[in-house]
Amino acid sequence: MDDLLREFITETNESLDVVDVELVKFEQEPNNATILNNIFRLVHTIKGTCGFLGLPRLEGIAHAAETLMGKFRDGAPVTQEAVSLILISIDQIKDILAELEAAEGEEPQGDDSELVGKLEDMSAKADAAMASGAEPEAEAAEEAPAEADAADDDDPDQTLERPLRPGEVSLDELERAFQETEIEVEVADVEIVEAEDIAEEVDEPAPAPVAAKTEAKAEPLKKAAAQKSGTEGGEKKAAGGSVSNKSIRVAVDTLEHLMTMVSELVLTRNQLLEIVRRHEDSEFKVPLQRLSNVTAELQEGVMATRMQPIGNAWQKLPRIVRDLSQELEKPIELEMIGADTELDRQVLEMIKDPLTHMVRNSADHGLEGPDERRAAGKPEKGTITLAAYHEGGHIIIEVRDDGKGIDVEKVKSKVLERGLATEAEFEKMTDSQIHKFIFAAGFSTAAEVTSVSGRGVGMDVVRNNIELIGGTVDLRSTTGKGSSFIIKIPLTLAIVSTLIVEASGDRFAIPQLSVVELVRVQTNSEHRIERIKDTPVLRLRNKLLPLVHLSQLLGIYEGEDVDQAIDSDNGFIVVMQVGSQTFGVVVDGVFHTEEIVVKPMSSMLRNLNMFSGNTILGDGSVIMIIDPNGIAGAMASHASSSVAESEDEEQEGLQRKSMSSQNAISLLLFRAGAPEPKAVPLSLVTRLEEFEVSKIERSNGRDLVQYRGSLMPLVYVNDGDGHKTEGTQPMLVFSDSGRSMGLVVDEIVDIVEDRMNIEVGSERPGVLGSAVVKERATEILDLGYYLPQAFEDWFMRKEMDIEALTKKVLFVDDSSFFRNMLTPVLKAAGYDVTTCIGPQQAFELLENGDKFHAIVSDIEMPEINGFEFCESLRRDPRFRNIPILALSSMVTPASIERGRQAGFDDYVAKFDRPGLIAALKDVFSNELGVAA
Amino acid sequence: MSVLEHKTNSDAGTASDMIQYVTVVIGGQLFGLPISQVHDVFVPESVTRVPMSAPEVQGVLNLRGRIVTAINMRRRLHLPPLEDEQMMAVGIEYKLESYGLVIDTVGEVLTLPAASSEPNPSNLDRRWAEISGGVHRLDGQLMVILDVDRLLGAMFTEPMVAA
C-alpha cells in the first residue's frame, strides 16, 4: 500500500472519530458555529483528499455530508434526523475505509460498481425528496431548507413538496422497508445522503428509480458485505491492525515530558561528570562514560522524534497537483525548494492541512487556464512554488504561483455581498488590505463551488491554523504576475527565539516572532521620542508609533513619576506587531537573542496574562517570557486608560481650581512612634517646641515640663511611647485659655499645603483616618482624643457659663474630618453639639422637633450647599430667627456677601476656632440682648 | 506536654499516630511542616521577581532545572521583611507543582503525636489562623502547624477572584 494512502487512512480514521464526537455535541448545541465549522472542515479535508487519491465513493459521501452541513452553516435548522444521516454516512465512510485497508488500498471493484448503481438509484430518490431537478448546485441551496424544514415535521412523509412520481417511494417508506435488517437501514440512510451528492456529481441522474430495485440492490450489497466479513474476516482483522499499528501516534505531551526528563538527565550527567573529573582514577569513570553516551543518544533520539523535515508535509502535494492539473485542465508544475528544512513535529502537523489548502487554492483560483496564460504572454504551464527556509529563528514557507493575481474588484464585490465591509471603508484601504479579506471566514472568490475548493473554508481555516501555532500568514499579490502566501511560523512550539531585554532592572524575554524591529533613540538622532500632550510617540518612517515603557506596562516602574519612565535621550524601542496592532515598547536595555525552552507557568501565576511562560536561561536564572498578546491588550487598555486619566485629571484640575481656596490647608507633618508620617492641621497647633530631655520631669505618674510658668503635661501619640533619653525632645504644643499640652513627637517633618481627603477611616482612637499627603499615606491625628489626656476636663472647664451649657448647637458638615475636628472645639466651649452629615439630615432633625439654639453649617456640601440650606431655613417661619453661622474656608468679600444674602448671621473661616467661638458667643449675646 | 513524654514518643516514632515535622522559624515564631510534604530545603538564590503577581510571591527561581515559585512567608504572615540575613526556603509540592516557602531558618525534625496538637487559639490573628492547622505545645515554646493546602489554596483563589 502506498504511503500516501496509509497515512490517509490513519488520519481519516482519526478525523472521523472527532467528527463523531463533535456531531453529537453539535446536535445538542445546533447554534454552536465553532463545532459546525470544525466538523465541516474535517469532512472537507477528507473529501478533498479522497478526490485526489482516486476514491470516488468516499469523496461522494463526504461531499454530500459536507453539502448538508453547508446548509446548516447557511442557517438551516438542525434536526435529529439530519444529524443521524450524517452520522450514518460517517459510519459508511469508516466501513469503506476498513475495506480499503483490508484490500491494501484497492477499492474492491464489485462493491464499488454496486454502490454506484445504488447511489444512482438513490440520487433520484433524494432528488424527489428534495423536490429538485437534475441540476445539482444551482438548486442545492433551495433544497436544503425544504429538506430541513420537512425533517422537522413529525411525519417524514411531508418531506415532499410534490406528490410522489410514479415508481417513487417516500423516504419514510424507504426507511421502513430497510428497517427489517440493521444493515439495510444503514445502507438506506446512507444512500439517501449519498443520493443528494450524486445529484451533484453525475451528469444524468437516473430518473424514476424504484424502491424494489433499491431493495434488490441492497440485498447483494448485504451479501457482499457478509461474504467479505466471512472470507476475509481474519485477514481483515490482521490487516486492519497493520496500518494503524505500524506507526504509533504519541501525544506531544508525552514527548514533551520525555524531553524534559532527558534535559534533567543531561543536567544530572553533567553534574556527575564534573564530580568524577575531580576524582582521578574513579571507578565510576567507565560506567559514567557509558551513561554519558547513552544519555546523548537518548537526547538525540527524543529530539529526532520532534523534528522532521518539512518535506514530510509536502509528500502529498505532487500527486495532488498532478491530479488537479488533470481535473482543471491546466498544466501545472510544482516546484519544491528546501524540503529538508526541519521543524517541530507538532508544527508540521498543524501546517499540513493549511498547506494542502493553499496549494489547491493556487491551482484552482490563482493559475489561469492555458489559453488565458498564452494570451497574457506567459508560458502555458503554470508554476506553483513551495519554498521553505529558516529566517531568524522562524521558518518561512512560501506558496507562490505565477497566475493572474488576486482580482481586487472581485474581492471587493464579494466582500460587499457578504457585508464584511462597506464601500466607504474600501476607500481608505490599500489593495493589500483588501487582499486580506480572503482570510475572512466564509469568504470564497470562486464563482462556482467546485469539489476542489471554493467553499470558503479554505483560507480562514488556513489562517486560524497558522495563528494557533503562533505563526502569521501574509499575502502579496500583483495583478497579472501572481500571488504569494508567506507563512511565518516558529521552528517549534517548545523552543522559542526571544529577545532578552531589561526594564527596571529585571530581564524579560520577548518572543522574536512579534518583534518587527529595534530602534535606538537619542535626542539628536533621526529617531526621537516626541510627545503629544503627555503621550509619547515615535516617528518612524512617517508613521506615528505609540510608545509605552515596559516597566510601566508591568507596573514595576520604580521612579517617581511614571510619565517620566520614557527617557527621551536614551532608550531602545522594541517595535512589536501583534495582529494588526503595531506599537513600540520602550526598554532600558537590549541584550541578545536566545533560544529558550518555554516552561509553563506555575498555575498560581497563570492568571497573569502578560506572560506566556517562563524559562531557565543559560546562566541558570529564571526569566519571564512576555506574551505579546497580553502586551497588546495592555497597550490598548493603557491607551484608553490614559485618555480616561487625562479626562479625570482635567476634571480634577477644574475641581482643584474651584476647591483650591477651600480645601487646601496647612498640615504639619511629623513622625511619632512609627516611620509613617502623621499630620495635624497646622492651625490647631499653637507652637512647635523643643525641650532639653533633662527638662522633662516626672510627677504624679506623668511626664511634665515647665512651660511659660506653668506645668505642661506631655502626651504620647501611642500609649507606652516614651520621650528620648538624651538631646532635645520636639513636641507640638496645643494651648487653649492658658492651658497647654505637649504632644511628644520623634521628628517634625514638614509643613505642607495640601488638600486633605480622609480616604480611609480609622477605628483606632486618636486617628481620624488616613489621607494622601505629599503622595504618601499619612495618618491624620484626632486631637480631640489627646487633649483630654492632658487635662481630663479640657472640654469641660473653660469659661462655661450655665447659659452656654444649655445652648444646643447643630453642626452641619459633610466632611467627617471637620466634624471630628470642630465638634470637640464646640464642646470645649461648652455647647451641646449635635452633628449632621448634611442639610438633609439637618432638616429631618428640625422637622422632628429637635430644638437648637444655633446652627453652624458648612458651605461646600454636595447636593444642597450651605447657602441653599440657609435660604430654605429662612423661608420657614419656625427657623426664621434661629442664628445660623456659615463655616467655610472660602472667605472672600463676595462669599461673605452671598452668605449674608442667604441669611447667615455670621460667616467664619474654617480653622478659625477662636473666631467660631467668638461668633457663637456673639450671636447668643445678641440674642440675649434682643431678648432683653 | 512534657519533654519526657516528647522523648518517649520520638522513640516510638514509627507509630501511626506520630507525625514528623520539619520546624522552621518565621519572624521568631516556630512553625512545623509535616515532613511528608517537604521535598527540599534550599537557599533561595537569584529569585526572578514576577511583576503583577500577588505580593506574597517573591518570584520564581531555578531549583535544579525546575522552576519553583517562591512564596515569602514573612509577607504572607504580614511580618516585616528580614534584613541583611540569608533566608532559607523549604521546597514543597502542591497540586503537582513546586513551591518554595521562603522562611528565616530551618530547625530540626520533631516527632510529635498527632493527638497532642491543639486547635488554633481563638484570638489568633486571622491571617495566621487561616494557614495554621493547629498548635503543638513544646517545651518552652509553641509550634504552629503550617497547613500547606490552606496556605497555597488561599493564594489560588485570591488572584482568580481578582481576575
TrEMBL record, chain A:
<feature type="domain" description="HPt">
    <location>
        <begin position="1"/>
        <end position="100"/>
    </location>
</feature>
<protein>
    <recommendedName>
        <fullName>Chemotaxis protein CheA</fullName>
        <ecNumber>2.7.13.3</ecNumber>
    </recommendedName>
</protein>
<dbReference type="Pfam" id="PF01627">
    <property type="entry name" value="Hpt"/>
</dbReference>
<dbReference type="Pfam" id="PF02895">
    <property type="entry name" value="H-kinase_dim"/>
</dbReference>
<dbReference type="InterPro" id="IPR003594">
    <property type="entry name" value="HATPase_dom"/>
</dbReference>
<dbReference type="InterPro" id="IPR036641">
    <property type="entry name" value="HPT_dom_sf"/>
</dbReference>
<feature type="compositionally biased region" description="Low complexity">
    <location>
        <begin position="125"/>
        <end position="135"/>
    </location>
</feature>
<feature type="domain" description="Histidine kinase">
    <location>
        <begin position="197"/>
        <end position="493"/>
    </location>
</feature>
<keyword id="KW-0902">Two-component regulatory system</keyword>
<keyword id="KW-0418">Kinase</keyword>
<dbReference type="GO" id="GO:0006935">
    <property type="term" value="P:chemotaxis"/>
</dbReference>
<feature type="region of interest" description="Disordered">
    <location>
        <begin position="123"/>
        <end position="171"/>
    </location>
</feature>
<dbReference type="InterPro" id="IPR005467">
    <property type="entry name" value="His_kinase_dom"/>
</dbReference>
<dbReference type="Pfam" id="PF02518">
    <property type="entry name" value="HATPase_c"/>
</dbReference>
<dbReference type="InterPro" id="IPR008207">
    <property type="entry name" value="Sig_transdc_His_kin_Hpt_dom"/>
</dbReference>
<dbReference type="InterPro" id="IPR051315">
    <property type="entry name" value="Bact_Chemotaxis_CheA"/>
</dbReference>
<dbReference type="InterPro" id="IPR004358">
    <property type="entry name" value="Sig_transdc_His_kin-like_C"/>
</dbReference>
<dbReference type="Pfam" id="PF00072">
    <property type="entry name" value="Response_reg"/>
</dbReference>
<keyword id="KW-0808">Transferase</keyword>
<feature type="modified residue" description="Phosphohistidine">
    <location>
        <position position="44"/>
    </location>
</feature>
<feature type="region of interest" description="Disordered">
    <location>
        <begin position="199"/>
        <end position="243"/>
    </location>
</feature>
<feature type="compositionally biased region" description="Acidic residues">
    <location>
        <begin position="136"/>
        <end position="158"/>
    </location>
</feature>
Automatic annotation (TrEMBL), chain B:
<dbReference type="InterPro" id="IPR002545">
    <property type="entry name" value="CheW-lke_dom"/>
</dbReference>
<dbReference type="InterPro" id="IPR036061">
    <property type="entry name" value="CheW-like_dom_sf"/>
</dbReference>
<dbReference type="InterPro" id="IPR039315">
    <property type="entry name" value="CheW"/>
</dbReference>
<dbReference type="GO" id="GO:0005829">
    <property type="term" value="C:cytosol"/>
</dbReference>
<dbReference type="GO" id="GO:0006935">
    <property type="term" value="P:chemotaxis"/>
</dbReference>
<feature type="domain" description="CheW-like">
    <location>
        <begin position="18"/>
        <end position="157"/>
    </location>
</feature>
<protein>
    <submittedName>
        <fullName>Coupling protein CheW</fullName>
    </submittedName>
</protein>
<dbReference type="GO" id="GO:0007165">
    <property type="term" value="P:signal transduction"/>
</dbReference>
<dbReference type="Pfam" id="PF01584">
    <property type="entry name" value="CheW"/>
</dbReference>
